[in-house]
C-alpha cells in the first residue's frame, strides 16, 4: 500500500463486508473494522458522493461493456486529484505534494514544421507508376 496499512476501515453493512472471510482478513492484518449506521448519511455520505463521482468518470472513459474500467482507473484518479474541488477550492495533488501537477499539456514541445520538397510529389508519382508497371 502506498501510504501504509490503515488502522481502521469503515464500511457499510453489505454482505461482502460482513462475510467471515473479511472479518478474518481484517483480524490477520490488524485492522479494526467499523460499520456505518444504516440509513444515516452523515456516517458515510462523503464516500458515497466520492464513489458517485468516480463511477461517472470511469463510465465516461470505459468501453461500451465497461470491461476495461480497471485500465481507466489511473487516468480517472489523476483527473480527480488534479481538478479544483468546489468544496475546498483546492487541488488535492497540490495539498499532498506541495506543488502543481505536471499535466500532459505541459509536456508539449513547440510545433516543428517541415519544409516541403517541391519535387516530392513528382517523385512519389514516378514511384507509384513504377510499382504499377511492375505489378
Question: How does this structure look, described?
Answer:
Residues 1-100 form the Integrase catalytic domain. Pfam families: rve_3. One of its GO terms (biological process) is DNA integration. It is elongated and about 80 Å long. The longest helix has 21 residues, at 41-61. A two-stranded parallel ribbon has the order 1-2. It is built from 6 helices and 2 strands. It is mainly α and 135 residues long. The model has no long low-confidence stretch (mean pLDDT 88). The chain has helices at residues 15-18, 20-29, 41-61, 69-81, 92-97, 120-134; strands at residues 8-11, 32-35. Helix 3 packs across helix 4 (69-81). The protein has one domain (36-134).
Which properties best describe this structure?
mainly alpha; two-stranded parallel ribbon; elongated; 2 strands; 135 residues
Produce a short descriptive summary.
The protein has 6 helices and 2 strands. By secondary structure, the chain is mostly helical.
Amino acid at each position: 500500500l502506498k501510504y501504509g496499512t490503515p488502522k481502521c476501515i469503515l464500511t457499510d453493512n453489505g454482505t461482502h463486508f460482513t462475510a467471515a472471510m473479511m472479518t478474518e482478513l481484517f483480524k490477520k492484518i490488524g485492522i479494526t473494522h467499523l460499520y456505518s449506521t444504516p440509513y444515516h448519511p452523515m456516517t458515510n455520505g462523503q464516500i458515497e458522493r466520492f464513489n458517485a463521482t468516480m463511477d461517472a468518470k470511469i463510465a465516461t472513459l470505459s468501453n461500451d461493456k465497461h470491461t476495461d474500467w480497471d485500465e481507466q482507473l489511473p487516468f480517472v484518479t489523476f483527473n480527480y486529484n488534479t481538478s479544483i474541488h468546489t468544496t475546498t477550492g483546492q487541488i488535492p495533488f497540490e495539498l499532498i505534494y506541495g506543488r502543481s501537477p505536471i499535466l500532459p499539456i505541459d509536456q508539449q514541445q513547440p510545433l516543428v514544421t517541415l519544409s516541403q520538397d517541391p519535387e516530392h510529389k513528382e517523385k512519389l508519382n514516378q514511384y507509384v507508376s513504377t510499382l504499377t508497371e511492375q505489378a
